[in-house]
Amino acid sequence: MNINHLKKYQTFSSVAELDQHVRGFLRRYKWELSEGNLEILTYIWRHSVKYPGVSFAKVNTIVSTTGRSRSTVIRTINRFENMNLIKRVATIRPNGKRGVNLLLFQPQEAFLTPHDDTLPDTAIDTVSIEAEATSPNECTPEYQEEAENKQGEKQPVKTKKIEGRPGSRFDMDYTFLPSYIPASFVEVAKPFFTPVEVDRAWECIHRAYRREQMHHGIEAYLEGVTRTFKQAIFLYKQGKIKKEFCGYLYSCVLESLRQEKRKETIQCTDSVYYDWLDEA
Fold first, then answer.
1. Upper half-sphere CA count for residue 231 (Cβ side, 13 Å)
2. What span, in angstroms and rounded, lies between the C-alpha atoms of 144 and 199?
3. CA atoms of 141 and 197, how far apart (whole Å)
4. pLDDT tens by residue, 22-36
5. Is the dihedral of CA 260, 261, 262, 266 positive or negative?
6. 249-278 confidence digits (pLDDT tens)
7. Where are the domains of the chain?
8. Burial group, residue 51, by CB count within 10 angstroms (0-12, 13-18, 19+)
9. 79: Cβ–Cβ under 8 A, 6 or more apart, which residues?
10. Which of 44, 163, 167, 228 has the smallest CB count inside 10 Å?
């Protein structure tokens, strides 16, 4: 295929728009992805800039470059397609034969972060989630910038809030939160999180619940989930969590739900199979 013909498949108007989209995806899902997933995504992302959103990298090329197995690459691409991040498109050559398979990044408004043009205000006493300047994995609507003065000394860290402040058009309180977030969880999280952060923390918890495919509704596990959340907050405030908070919380909730699922499976097995030895 003539590479210039790829322009008709372009899904973004600029590389900056593509980058904003992928970073928004990572903000939501990075803690669910393995190191291999991230390497493969990074490769596809970096090779989708000539015509923003269009990658024609072959599976074999990704395998040889990342060092991951062919099955891992294919499984990862399938996963990203199921998550609506990318779409595979088969092309046809002028002679009618099948051409290369393209990987197209799909624009989704949910992955984009609204721009904030308001002035910074005094920081609220909430859990501050650390984010690396070179990494697209922000977990809260806060970011930090450090500047150096002429002598090379660091200036005080400034905090800018995206969520909004009293009296502005972005002002929100906890009554704006979606009704599907349990009120008991909101009450526990309020002293530490802004409303936007509460929403993201619950989204993280709910993803862990969906991934584990539990036997009952999430309400049945709310007590354990809340207990895990409190423990994570305590460790974070003690400075014992070095990774981003949402990633740590996701891992803890996932492990907690796995333990509950094991207990439920054992109980179910006990109810099906009668132990005649113990009875005797």
1. 13
2. 21
3. 7
4. 988 888 888 778 888
5. positive
6. 888 998 999 988 888 888 775 554 545 445
7. 3-111, 166-266
8. buried
9. 37
10. 167
Closest CA to 88 of 96, 98, 75, 78: 78
DSSP 153: P
Q: Which run of H or of E encompasses 89?
A: strand 86-92
Separation CA 225–CA 228 (nearest Å): 5
Sign of CA dihedral 151, 156, 162, 166: negative
Interacting residues of 17 by C-beta distance below 8 A, sequence separation 6+: 52
Which residues partner with 104 through β-bridges? 54, 87
H-state helical runs in the chain: 15-29, 35-46, 59-66, 70-82, 183-189, 195-212, 222-237, 245-272, 276-279
Domain 3-111: give its CATH code. Answer: 1.10.10.10
* Cα–Cα distance, 121 to 164 (Å, whole number): 9
3-state secondary structure of 99: strand
Global pTM reads: 0.47
